[in-house]
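Let us practice reading a record.
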Amino acid sequence: MLAIQALGFIAEDPERMGAFLGATGIAPEAIRDAARSPGFLAGVLEHMLADESLLLAFADSTGLDPAAIAQARGALGGT
């Protein structure tokens, strides 16, 4: 659920979404199907963790500790 929230947060802002699309190479029309995959969702969190300002903005908007986002990333199969 946290990765879906993160994807929604990214999608709310055209600049954030553009950066995400550019970094991942995914086509906008493929996101809905891709979001069913734990690997894609892990990638969403990985993208967020790679950009400290994005990570902190998301953490602030959700009231989460940024470490919780890293833990969620790990739970999806990452380290």
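A brief commentary: The first helix runs from residue 2 to 11.
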